[in-house]
Amino acid sequence: MVTTSDSARAVDAALQHLDAAVAQDSPDQLESVYRELTDLPAATLDAHTTRLGPHIARQLALMPAWHAAAFADLVGQLVDVGADALVCAPPLLRGLRESLLRAQEFFGLWWDRFGPAEEPPEPGSVPDPDLQARLGDSYADVWHAPYLGWLALHRWSTAAVPVLADGRVRLLLRDGDDGIPGLGADANRLARLAEWLLPRYESRFLGLVVRLLRLLEDAPLLVVHPAARKAFVVRIDGMTHLAQLQMPLSVALYGGGHLPGSSDVAAAFAGAAAERPSVPSRLALYEDFAFARPDGARLWPSVAPDELPVVDGVRRLVLHDRQEFVPLQWGPLLERLPERLEVLAVLDGEEARRACAGVAPLRKD
User: Fold this and answer.
1) pLDDT tens profile 13-57
2) Which residues on neighbouring strands pair with residue 237, listed in sequence order?
3) Residue 356 vs residues 258, 290, 297, 353: alpha-carbon distances, Å
4) Cα-flanking dihedrals φ and ψ of residue 82, to 5°?
5) Which pLDDT score, from 0 to 100, does residue 333 have?
6) How many CA atoms lie within 13 A of 235 on its CB side?
7) Rounded distance, CA 222 to CA 319, Å?
8) SS3 of residue 276 by DSSP
9) Distance of alpha carbon 162 from its chain centroid, rounded?
């Protein structure tokens, strides 16, 4: 039986070995320490995650790039089970930005060399000696760092997701380039870097990074339902794409009696606008609304709330009645990311008329 003191000693030893490997700049020792840490029992990692996460994170900048990415992935896992995201965020996000820049550089080099005739290396794969030989004498000086940045971006993205799921970290990223010391980028600049790579780099986690960076925090939204001649001021939080708005809007507007008629969605999720319950999978539920811009252009489920048009300083979403039977999606993007929708005001009469003025019918294109 492993006692508390035994697990503490094992963690102490692993961290001492890590510090020594970093001090001696020894890749072999780092690989040995990585195995030592990942071989620790899950119960030991859980019990000491608050020590392990920040300690490893502080050493990332002192490691070779390839090894740093592996340890960053481990830090992300520790954050996911309790390490302080705010403490671990600066080195993780600095590493993410560096890898984004290197990956972008690599894609440019690859395109100049091979064009569209050859796909770049698969994200998350290991360095290929044959490819390095093909790149010739320029590999060490020109290709090495961008190549590793490209391959390692998958790990940095994976590590960044649990950190960015913490609202305190996202708040710092909205304080400008100096919100996180040494990062040199805010949420928008990081998101633009990642968005440039998304069509060129297949990684679910890079997509999650973009969604988290684009997340609206406690944001007001004017929701207009022209057919009902009503408008609503709502506050949303934790929503990364419009599909997540369907269920809470049905619950709030139909369930709250603000729209005429009934809704199977509102009935199934009654009283659950803030917390998504488990609903039997056999229950067939369909979206109540078609979302649109004020000019009638359809808005698809993958659109992020921060892409909604701003009218008179407030983002605006137009609701039309269901056009076809689209299966309802529910469930949070991440378990650690709560979703909330709150109706702040119901507009009717002259206020609703002004809000609905100029709203075009839903376009079919």
Assistant:
1) 999 999 999 999 999 999 999 999 999 999 999 999 999 999 999
2) 340
3) 16, 16, 15, 5
4) 135, -10
5) 65
6) 6
7) 11
8) coil
9) 8
